[in-house]
Amino acid sequence: MAEPAIRRLLAGDDTSSFRCGDVEYDLFLQRYAGQNQFRLFVGTTYVALDGPRVVGYVTLAVGQIDREDIPRRAQADFPRYPLPVLRLARLAVDETFQGRGLGRRLAAYAFAVALQVRTAAGCIGVVVDALPDRVGFYADLGFVELELTSGRSPLRPRPVAMFLPLSSVEAALPSSTTWHGPDTAR
Fold first, then answer.
1. How many CA atoms lie within 13 A of 146 on its CB side?
2. How many CB atoms lie within 10 A of CB 52?
3. DSSP letters of 127-172?
4. For residues 5 and 109, what is the distance between their CA atoms, to the nearest angstrom?
5. Cα end-to-end span (Å), the chain
6. Which residues 6+ apart lie within 8 Å of 136 measured at CB?
7. Which of 9, 11, 91, 99 has most Cβ atoms within 10 angstroms of its Cβ?
8. DSSP single-letter state for residue 27
């Protein structure tokens, strides 16, 4: 079986059958991802496709982080004002594709986008507010937990803010010849 192709969400993509086991993540893809991307311009969603069927997605948005919120060992490298980051806002895999490495491929896709953003506009790393049961997944990718001084989420269970510096992103990208990186079509 071929690996699902990853590309930017298109307005005509059918997301109605996507089920990842978390209703909020299903509803986000089905109702809000397109609106956020095509009308509000507050995030871009990339989908993994098995034929025409969406079997995974990752939503990205630009953001910023205070220098004091990044790990201490990296603080000296940066100026004392808010720093640009790429926010990994959502990542989900359809139940029928879970356990096959698609989540890691979607994360790697996000990392490649972060490298493009670094070149195009500036970016020091990737930030995610991980659900407590997903912290291990992100830690395995090299993310570290942040000790935030502001911006705590009112959500319950409270997400865990995590950071992956771009210096680690390059090391985390797969070296496989099947890796094609993000699309560049607008």
1. 27
2. 8
3. EEEE-GGGHHHHHHTT-EE---SS-----SSPPEEEEEEHHHHHHH
4. 11
5. 29
6. none
7. 91
8. H
> Across residues 69-79, what is the average pLDDT?
84
170's tokens: 């390059």
**Tokens at residue 57, please?**
């997605």
Phi, psi of 120 (to 5 degrees): -80, -35
Distances (CA, A) of 37 to 29, 34, 61, 70, 149: 11, 5, 10, 28, 30
Query: Residue 184 corresponds to which tokens in the numbers above?
Result: 């560049």
3-state helix, strand, coil in the chain (%, to 5): 35, 25, 40
CA distances from residue 12 to 9, 15, 30, 38 in whole angstroms, order as listed = 8, 9, 12, 12
CA gap 34, 58 in Å, rounded? 13
- Which helix (H) or strand (E) segment holds residue 105: the answer is helix 102-120
Q: How far is CA 109 from the centre of its chain?
A: 8
pLDDT of 79: 87
**If you search the block for the tokens 């089905």, which residue do you land on?**
30
SS3 at position 88:
strand
SS3 90: strand
pLDDT tens-digit readout, 102-153: 999 999 999 999 999 999 999 999 999 999 999 999 999 999 999 765 555 5
Task: Return the minimum-mean-pLDDT range out of 73-77, 132-136, 172-176.
Answer: 172-176
